[in-house]
Amino acid sequence: MYLTKEEKAKLFAKHGKAKNDTGSAEGQIALFTHRIKHLTEHLKTNRKDYNTERSLVMLVGKRRSLLDYLTKKDVLRYRAIVKELGLRK
Predict the structure, then answer these.
(1) So where are the chain's domains?
(2) Spatial separation of the C-alpha atoms in residues 19 and 83, rounded to whole Å
């Protein structure tokens, strides 16, 4: 598996409020970003894998909706996570 429990815990500890805080928007966005990067690398070598392509598009949509939610909820948190992860609209 590409993401172990320890790596996931580090991801949530870095971007979430705590190590066990897996439900925060920042933690979820960081997790989706990690998964999107992994799937993008997979698609570079397997360009005809349409199921993975569909999963990637769905993940990008989920991340976008979470980012939109965060924009409405707290713009400062949105700007911080976008800057931290290097995302662009």
Answers:
(1) 25-85
(2) 21
Give the CA distances from residue 25 to residues 7, 53, 54, 55, 72, in Å, rounded to whole numbers and listed in that order: 18, 24, 23, 20, 12
Among 1.10.287.10, 2.30.42.10, 1.20.1640.10, 1.10.3720.10, name the CATH number for the domain at 25-85.
Answer: 1.10.287.10
Length of the chain: 89
Model-wide pTM > 0.70: yes
What's the pLDDT band for 89 if we cut at 50, 70, 90?
Answer: confident
Q: What is the pLDDT of residues 1-25, one digit of tens each?
A: 688 999 999 999 999 888 788 899 9
